[in-house]
User: What shape does this take?
Amino acid sequence: MGRTAAFDAIAPTYDATRGGTARAAAFAEQLAALLDPAEPVLDIGVGTGIVAAELTARGHRVCGIDLSPGMLAHARARLGARVAAGDAGRLPVRTGSVAQAVSTWLLHAGPNPRAVFGEVARVLRPGGRYLVIPARGMRPGDDIGRVVGELEDRLDPEAARQDGPQVLAPIAAAHGLVYEGTASERPTVFRVSPEQMARSLAGGRLFTGAWQVGEEHLGLVAEACERLRALPDPQVPRVREMADFVMVFRRTE
Assistant: This one.
């Protein structure tokens, strides 16, 4: 299944499986603290538009781009004509026309980060900023996290789906974007058992379907599920600590 088709398939349940409006509002608060309300915002990978809608409710003018027709159908219901179909690696946007852009949980999901940062550098004005909330910027180091992290590394040996600063900062720099560090960090705590995690991984649909594992690698997923179920007290939820944060990139000239 291709990347676009995979997101079309999960579009109806995407928001509900990722924290819904409450989490989107929290992301919007993190971004809004760093955005200029006097300038429009380009949301690259707008998805269902749930975060963009929360930014709009806070007084920002947001336009969105996404490649998935299924996701865009939900975004149009929220944002109307302010969304358009387009590839993050080939933005349908004029050069030097954007003062500020954002992406929430985009760069782990399959687009080529070099192409994305190349396009962001092209469309941003000098001094413009690109704010990124990563999905995988910090991985939990508990027993579940160690098993899942090892699986992800085996499935992605070139770190193409890693979206933390250590991977993205050098890519951004190669395109003339300066990484200014993280901001608006927000600790999050949730509970999940090894058995629940194993069930969520079964069938090779990582990140609730955003990363569809090919049949040739399903054995690695099955092995990880066995390791999860072999952990002590696999039915007992672990308290898992993570942090959502914003990475700030700026075009200097």
Observations:
- The chain has a mean pLDDT of 92.
- The chain has one domain: 3-140+158-188+241-251.
- DSSP finds nine helices and nine strands in the chain.
